[in-house]
Design brief:
This protein is of the alpha/beta class and about 350 residues long. The protein folds into 3 domains: about 1-65, 434 Repressor (Amino-terminal Domain), CATH 1.10.260.40; about 70-175 and about 315-340, Rossmann fold (3-Layer(aba) Sandwich); about 180-310, 3-Layer(aba) Sandwich (Rossmann fold). Helix content is about 50%, strand content about 15%. The protein is built from 15 helices and 11 strands. A 6-stranded parallel sheet has the order 2-1-3-4-5-11, with helices on both faces. Strands 7-6-8-9-10 form a 5-stranded parallel sheet. α14 (about 295-300) links the parallel β9 and β10. α1 (about 1-15) packs antiparallel against α2 (about 20-30), α2 (about 20-30) packs across α3 and α12 (about 240-250) crosses α13 (about 265-280). The longest helix has 17 residues, at about 210-225. The two termini are about 40 Å apart. The model has no long low-confidence stretch (mean pLDDT about 90).
């Protein structure tokens, strides 16, 4: 055992002195070069233990694929472009998604290029940039809409892509989504368990596909548990946090204020809690809030909140696997996934 460990250490030390290659990794792991290459590409026919062993060695060696040579030989850029709105950074989405994508791309020839945009920008502009410049071999999109024009454009041009969220287009395409319908129903159920009767929903904007999923689950929950909706008008999770805070403060000054809220984003939840405090209402006593959250930070600050986790890191991994598989020619019908809590 010790002898094998020392041999491995010597092999790694020697490989580091030179430029690490696939051959270096193959010699240290005892695997074939083709197996090493496919493991680094996260090929589905390579076992998880083998992938982990190969990636560990690649990481120790500081292996970096010769991307210039690869591009000359293959015509590929070996770049995946993540197109995300700046609003998602406010909601704490970007970092875990990037981490998840990076975990899958680690050790592969692929690098991640993040193209941010504001919701006031033309959403087609970053997609056109990639198509016109050939800047990437594949794209990951977020904030999908039912008839998303970006998806239509990519389907027309045949560039591999995956979306964080679904569309209602006839053409099947790779996606990963969170089951927002199940989340909303579960949120209403938990409020009903606590005796709440008048429930409000802070949804995403109606132009996003998951708005309809949330509304469907929310309304099904109200019907199942005999609860009443308290409308918040046009308020959405994308509104300015001050707008949400002030609307909540005004709402809870009314006699018919809700005693339960379902919040679709952790950022809007912070504003809701601030509004409650300003209105003199007690979270967990006068009103309960169920919120989606990517981590436990909100609970550290306000343990009275009822949280349901949405794993954005998992989403990043699933999206990266889907777009790489699509680049390798896998059918889009096999590259869709839905996660829950």
């Amino acid at each position: 055992m010790n002898s094998h460990h020392e041999t491995r250490k010597d092999g790694i030390a020697a490989a580091i002195r030179m430029r690490p290659t696939l051959k270096s990794i193959a010699e240290i792991t005892g695997l074939g070069i083709t197996t090493v290459s496919r493991a680094l590409k996260d090929a589905p026919d390579i076992g998880a233990d083998t992938k982990a062993r190969v990636r560990d060695v690649a990481r120790e060696l500081g292996y970096q694929p010769d991307r210039a040579g690869l591009r000359l030989r293959t015509g590929k850029t070996y770049v995946i472009s993540l197109i995300m709105s700046l609003e998602e950074e406010v909601m704490g989405v970007t970092s875990p998604v990037v981490m998840g994508i990076s975990e899958v791309l680690a050790g592969t020839p692929y690098q991640l290029l993040v193209l941010p945009y504001k919701k006031t920008d033309d959403p087609l502009a970053p997609v056109r940039y990639v198509l016109e410049t050939g800047a990437a071999d594949g794209i990951i999109l977020s904030r999908t809409q039912p008839g998303d024009a970006r998806v239509r454009l990519l389907l027309e041009h045949g560039l591999p892509f995956a979306t964080h969220g679904r569309t209602t287009l006839d053409s099947v395409h790779p996606f990963h989504d969170f089951d927002n319908e199940a989340f909303a129903f579960e949120a209403v159920r938990r409020l009903a368990e606590r005796g709440r009767r008048r429930i409000a929903l802070v949804p995403p904007p109606p132009d996003l596909t998951y708005h309809a999923h949330l509304r469907s689950g929310f309304e099904a929950g109200l019907l199942a548990f005999g609860l009443k909706e308290c409308s918040l008008g046009a308020l959405t999770s994308d509104d300015c946090l001050l707008t949400i805070r002030d609307a909540c403060q005004t709402l809870f000054a009314r006699a018919d204020a809700p005693d339960g809220i379902v919040s679709s984003a952790s950022s809007s939840t912070t504003a809701l809690v601030a509004g409650l405090d300003l209105a003199g209402r007690r979270l967990g006593a006068d009103v309960d809030i169920v919120t989606k959250t990517p981590n436990d930070v909100l609970l550290w600050l306000r343990p009275e909140l009822i949280t349901i986790r949405e794993d954005f890191r998992l989403a990043g991994r699933e999206l990266a696997r889907a777009v790489l598989a699509r680049i390798d020619g896998e059918s889009p019908e096999t590259l869709t996934s839905l996660s829950s809590f």
